[in-house]
Design a protein that fits this description.
Elements lengths: L1 H10 L3 H5 L15 E2 L6 E6 L8 H17 L8 E6 L2 E2 L3 E2 L5
Parallel strand pairs: 2-3
Antiparallel strand pairs: 1-2, 3-4, 3-5
Length: 101
């Protein structure tokens, strides 16, 4: 799972994804400083090198949905899984991926 989050943090959309209209609001985040732990009690924790409050709402959603989506591919129930973003001593309240509605 960390690989998908690290790719999102470091590179954003591929050229083909950009041509299809996909974009990211994430600032460059050093990939080696982005990690995720396996979900515990229905919450996936994503560790970042920056405070989550410095990210836009879209950036937060992108990180949460990427983490939840990869966890779902590994067998987790995406509709019940929440993501918590932590960074620089700050912990954001866990949130659901709105795409899983």
């Amino acid at each position: 799972m960390p690989d998908a989050l690290r790719l999102l943090a470091a590179a954003g959309p591929t050229a083909a994804e950009g041509s299809a209209g996909l974009r990211t609001e994430l600032p460059f985040l050093p990939p080696e400083q982005v990690s995720a732990r396996a979900p515990e009690n229905g919450i996936l924790t994503v560790q970042l090198p920056v405070p989550p409050s410095t990210l836009s709402g879209l950036a937060v959603t992108q990180l949460a949905c990427t983490g939840v989506g990869v966890s779902a591919m590994a067998g987790a129930n995406a509709r019940k899984l929440m993501a918590r973003l932590n960074g620089a001593g700050e912990a954001r309240k866990p949130l659901f991926c709105p795409a899983n509605g």
